[in-house]
Specification:
By secondary structure, the protein is an alpha/beta fold. It is built from 12 helices and 8 strands. The strands form 2 sheets. Strands 2-1-3-4 form a 4-stranded parallel sheet, sandwiched between helices.
Length: 344
């Protein structure tokens, strides 16, 4: 019997330093997140970051925490339940980090008699610190605890036509009654070296204007290229003019070159160059979380208006919207019936 495993990032159990600290430890000690030797990662994370970051992060989580829990967890659970209603195969939900483990999700499927699993990393784009680490962790857990389970992985769907359509229509709905001067696509940032490490050719990715436009096998694992392709797909679907749309990258660590332009710098630049009404979309995430609800919806608005901007809106992620649920359910049902995976 076939089954589906949805996997998202994860969340601390509560917005308190006590619960945030072990969550951050697991997250930041992942070798695909901070990709330095373990001894150095241990110094950076446990010797420096975890001394102060849990308290600061807990304060941020408190700003966005819902009465029924972490928004990312609550939304992901709602999404999984809605997908389950539209398919006959068992659907399980796991998180890469935190207490809602991938191992427990696999156990849930195994206990129902599932012997073939479709792994769905809930990330539209390939990055070693998101999509790849989910796949690697799931395979490790499967091989260790459930070696008889057959695993198939949904590819990154950044340019899938059905995904672009539902994302575009979500953006259009978010712009209703908002006269925007500019639409900013803010993607989650990653270090530039992650792009080069993910390049199978070891020479294509120069991280410049040309390499993302030149056809290459490297694009299959190039986060930067895939982000730009998502924006291009939405622009084409909605007929958006080039001068009203741009890309940026948020959430970076200091003392290291990350993908540019930086979102907080773009808030300042756009405001100073005359943008008064700014709309921001965060397509690296399929459901709202700390990085969208606090960093962009709250802090981003403050930064833009401090720089001289006026009206500001953050367009919600796809979350558990009916359109997105229907797209995922269609992919699952097609795979269950034919074994085929969605294409671009």
């Amino acid at each position: 019997m076939k089954g589906v495993l949805l996997v998202n990032l994860g969340s601390p159990n509560s917005p308190t330093p006590k619960d945030v600290k072990p969550y951050l430890d697991e997250f930041l000690m992942d070798e695909r997140v901070i990709d330095v030797p373990r001894w150095l990662r241990n110094i950076i994370v446990r010797g420096i970051i975890l001394r102060t970051r849990p308290k600061k992060s807990a304060e941020a989580y408190k700003k966005i925490w819902w009465a029924d829990g972490s928004p990312l967890i609550v939304i992901s659970e709602r999404f999984a339940k809605k997908v389950q209603k539209k398919t006959k195969v068992p659907v399980a939900l796991g998180m890469r980090y935190g207490s809602m483990t991938i191992k427990n999700a696999l156990a849930h499927l195994n206990d129902q008699g599932v012997d073939e699993v479709l792994l769905v990393p809930l990330y539209p784009h390939y990055a070693m610190s998101s999509y790849e680490t989910v796949v690697v962790k799931t395979m490790q857990e499967q091989e260790k605890y459930y070696p008889n389970l057959k695993m198939t992985t949904l590819p990154a769907f950044y340019n899938n036509k059905e995904y672009i359509k539902v994302l575009s229509e979500s953006i259009l709905a978010g712009l209703k009654d908002f006269e925007y001067d500019h639409l900013l696509f803010s993607y989650h940032g990653i270090p530039e070296r992650h792009i080069r490490k993910s390049d199978p050719t070891r020479f294509h990715c120069k991280i410049n204007e040309q390499c993302c436009q030149t056809n290459s096998v490297a694009h299959n694992t190039c986060y930067r290229h895939q982000c730009f392709e998502t924006t291009k797909g939405v622009m084409a679907y909605l007929g958006l003019p080039n001068d009203k749309v741009s890309n940026s990258f948020q959430s970076r660590l200091p003392n290291d070159p990350w993908l540019k332009p930086y979102t907080d710098f773009e808030f300042q630049r756009l405001a100073k160059e005359g943008t008064r009404n700014l709309a921001v979309i965060t397509p690296a995430f399929v459901c709202d979380c700390l990085e969208t609800l606090e960093e962009i919806a709250m802090e981003g608005k403050h930064q833009f208006q401090e720089a001289g901007g006026s009206d500001y809106t953050h367009i919600s992620c796809l979350n558990d919207s009916e359109g997105w649920v229907s797209v995922m359910a269609k992919w699952v049902n097609d795979w269950e019936a034919t074994g085929n995976l969605p294409s671009s």
